[in-house]
Amino acid sequence: MSTQPVRVVRHPDGVVELRLEDPGRGNALDLPTAEALRDATAEVAADPGGAVLLRAAGAAFCVGGDLRAFAGRGEETGAYVHAVATAAHAAVRTLYELPVPVVTAVRGAAAGGGIGLALVGDIVLAARSARFRLAYTAMGLTPDCGATWLLPRLVGPRLATDLVLTNRVLTGDEAERLGLVSRVVEGGEVDEAAYRTAAELAGGAGEALRAAKRLLRDGAEDGLSRHLDEEARLIAGLAGSDEAQARMTAFLAPRVRTRVRSGQSAPGSPESVS
């Protein structure tokens, strides 16, 4: 086990893994951990590979801010918490802005700041036994790590308000049903499933995946007309690329051979992906 609370692991298949590695503390965020997370995400951003996987060691994904580090600081508490939040927010911002797909694997508790880290991924896999809880107002605090920005966009303002104000716990199944996570798997399978998903994305059509991700992000702010123009520009630009041409040819080849053998069509006949 690494002595660092956060580690970057680069895999030969193009997956760049960002791993929280302080399981004895539930991967809680004190200042050293938040700064390590900030620095590690900056390292990932400099070379994100084909896909990024965010996961954690131990029984909990991230229990949020380390209350033991926050308490008992007197007049210095506000400055300390601001420093933790600023470093953690730099990490969340970097993860959100990565051009490649980000896959998150959540086991155990995701609470407080761990909510923002869990949900910032493009694809979020959760163990069925995972537990999601904001918990801030129960401690006399307000949310950070992007929770009040991400939640309304994922589940709508009404449910986001409920989760923030009541601090109720969501299971993995409930999180999937409400749209917080992409899908749930059994607890012992979440790391493998998340890695497999990241590896498949890393081995996919890189330019198309990056462009599709950018369209999805920009679409939340664009008007429809402008967004349609951008979709047309990007698909046209990619269609003539070597990668797209090779993938389309490979997709069509077995279908064309089958139809030629059966006398149903000739090479060059129109095909679709349906």
Description:
By secondary structure, the protein is α/β, with parallel strands linked by helices. The chain has 2 domains: 6-202, Alpha-Beta Complex (2-enoyl-CoA Hydratase, Chain A, domain 1); 206-262, no CATH class. The protein is globular and about 80 Å long. A 6-stranded mixed sheet has the order 1-2-3-4-6-9, with helices on both faces. A 3-stranded mixed sheet has the order 5-7-8. Residues 265-274 have low confidence and may be disordered. The protein contains 11 helices and 9 strands.
Described by the principal axes of the CA atoms, the overall outline is globular
Number of strands: 9
Order of SSEs, N→C?
EEHEHHEEHEEHHEHEHHHH
Q: Give start-end ranges of low-pLDDT stretches.
A: 265-274
If you compute it from the alpha carbons, what radius of gyration comes out, rounded to the nearest whole angstrom?
Answer: 21 Å
Please give the oligomerization state of what you see: single chain
CATH topology of the largest domain: 2-enoyl-CoA Hydratase, Chain A, domain 1
- Binned strand content: 5-15%
Provide the CATH top-level class of the largest domain: Alpha Beta
Task: Please tally the helical runs, counting DSSP H or I stretches of 4 or more residues.
Answer: 11
Helix content: 40-55%
Strand line-up of the largest beta sheet: 1-2-3-4-6-9
CATH superfamily of the largest domain: 2-enoyl-CoA Hydratase, Chain A, domain 1
